[in-house]
Write a structure and sequence with these properties.
mainly alpha, about 300 residues, about 0% strand, 14 helices
Length: about 300
């Protein structure tokens, strides 16, 4: 990951670009029709995870072998494997706009629940209001989408997959945060090493699964531009830029700017993929963004991206 510090303007720009490329994920899959969601998830996070692990160098190995960080790496990697498959399943069944909005909108809600269960952290009024607004937005955008698609089992499955993606991303974020706070035996905590270890470990079963079950899709040259884009741009570049932004502007501001992601995803879904949201759908997306803003703006520390 880039290591240089930047000023606030540069940090905001880095996070904005990261959120923008994250928002292109669903639209990119549209250019490789017929590829199953599991293959997209395995290739994207498999290749991207290997790159991140190698880029972190010795820090990856230290995070894997250290008893202080190992269990958080294992939990984070297991959560990331499930997220990789669930997120792309949500995009395939619920659509790009709805799948992205529900996954991103639900993740901070699940994150609050995880902290409440594991850390006994009390639920604040601000969190409750943000959760209610975000849930309302997800319900509105789901109903709006069902009017256009006449509901159906695939829509229900897609929303369920998006909720699973939101839950597992929250678990991944929680585990990484715990790993970052774990004091190593010697030297300062290595954030790059923890993230590299999580992604690298998650890449192992994902790569194996795609080689065993998705080999015929790997043999299609037309699919590789999409595979490489998803692995190198949203996954590797997006996380690297977000890390730069975090160091420059702080977690609260970075999380707020990253709310561009569902907006970019919804706009591209309509303009490129041809999805239809309607006025109600846009209201739903807006409510999710408002809910996440309520959760983020008053926070001055400890915020983690939830999408």
């Amino acid at each position: 990951m880039p290591g240089e510090r930047r000023g606030p303007a540069g940090g905001v720009a880095a996070v904005a670009v990261a959120a923008t490329v994250w928002g292109t994920t669903g639209t990119a899959t549209h250019f490789a029709p017929g590829v199953p969601p599991a293959v997209f998830g395995a290739v994207t996070f498999g290749l991207g995870g290997l790159v991140l692990a190698v880029a972190a160098g010795r820090g990856t190995v230290r995070a894997l072998v250290s008893p202080r960080t190992r269990r958080w790496v294992l939990i984070g990697a297991a959560s990331l494997v499930v997220y990789a498959v669930a997120f792309y399943a949500a995009l395939a069944d619920a659509g790009v706009a709805l799948g992205t909005t529900v996954a991103i909108g639900s993740s901070p809600v699940f994150a609050g629940l995880v902290e409440w269960v594991t850390d006994r952290r009390p639920v604040t009024t601000r969190w409750a209001v943000a959760a209610l607004v975000s849930v309302a937005g997800m319900v509105v955008v789901t109903l709006a989408r069902s009017e256009h698609d006449a509901g159906g089992g695939s829509l229900v499955a897609g929303v369920a997959a998006a909720l699973l993606a939101g839950c597992t991303y929250a678990l991944y974020s929680w585990a990484v945060a715990r790993g970052l706070r774990a004091t190593p035996e010697t030297g300062p905590p290595d954030g790059r090493g923890v993230v590299g270890a999580v992604f690298g470990l998650a890449a192992v079963p994902l790569v194996v699964s795609v080689v065993v079950g998705g080999a015929r899709f790997l043999g299609e040259p037309a699919h590789w531009p999409v595979f490489l884009y998803l692995a190198l741009v949203p996954t590797v570049l997006g996380h690297a830029l977000y890390a730069v932004g975090l160091r420059a502007v702080g977690a609260a501001a970075a999380t707020l700017v990253s709310l561009l992601e569902p907006v970019v995803a919804a706009v591209l879904a309509v303009l490129v993929v041809g999805e239809r949201l309607g006025a109600a759908g846009w209201v739903g997306v807006g409510l999710v963004v408002v809910g996440l803003t309520v959760l983020t703006v008053p926070a001055r520390r400890g915020a983690v991206r939830g999408g």
